[in-house]
Amino acid sequence: MQVLHVAVDESRRSLQGIHLGELLHRQWGGTMALVSVVASSDQVDKRRAALHDALDRQELGAYRESLEIVTGDAADVLAGLASDPGEGLLCMTSHGRRPASELLLGSVAAETVRRAGALVVLGGPRFDPGRHGRIDTLMVCVDGSRPAESVLEPAVNLARRLDARLQLLHVVEVETDAASVLPGGTGHGDIMESGYVQSLARRIREADGFEVEWEVLHGDSPAEAIHRYLTPCTNAMVVMTTHGRSGFSQVATGSVSREILHKAHCPVGIMRPVKGG
């Protein structure tokens, strides 16, 4: 039976991941377990005691029995859980830090996404479990590129597992050139991009027998357009890929996924496309 893993440490913020796990588990089924990673075996007892105390203080003591303390490199261990299809699904929170030149994700979450090559479900700093009693809609962000489309298969699988609808979101940049507008105010780009998402929806329907909705958004900034669309939504989850570049100012995600994770009150599923995929 597949397991929904929730990565935690003793911080209050990480324990918010339990509420994220509970939200998914209501529809996921299977089992839900907490996992915490320490660098060496001599830290296991200290971490277990700290987590038991933290769980009790948060009135989450029922999860004591499901807690597993693992030794090793945290990102490697968690990425292994995320990338093994037999293990199920990994979810965790970000720390919400946002220095000027760094990704808001904590370094462990960022490295986990970068190394996993599989979907990881994250709760950003504004994740609000109170706004989501269940996941009715998975909103998948696509941009016409193969890397972005690589998340479609895992998104379909997750939507099927959660018995949720699937919706494609694509942002068309605002046309400022009057020559690019057809009579009646319809832009060439709008028509082309509408055709793109309709084609993707048809492909998924034919290949997977799964009905797909779609929406074309408009704006100068894809992140802002997606955020505006998400803001009034409840019972939703957004899914997207990351560029997966590493480095000081590009730790794990591209600017769009970084901004969405920072602002979204809903869960955000992020996947780094496998190189060559």
From TrEMBL:
Report domain UspA positions. Answer: 26-116, 136-270
SUPFAM superfamilies, A to Z:
Adenine nucleotide alpha hydrolases-like
One Pfam family from the UniProt entry? Usp
First and last residue of the signal peptide: none
By its UniProt entry, which InterPro entries does this protein fall under? Answer: Universal_stress_UspA, UspA
Family in the record: Belongs to the universal stress protein A family.
Q: Which PANTHER family match?
A: STRESS RESPONSE PROTEIN NHAX, UNIVERSAL STRESS PROTEIN HP_0031
Q: What is this protein called?
A: Universal stress protein family protein
Lineage, broadest ranks: Bacteria, Pseudomonadati, Pseudomonadota, Gammaproteobacteria, Oceanospirillales
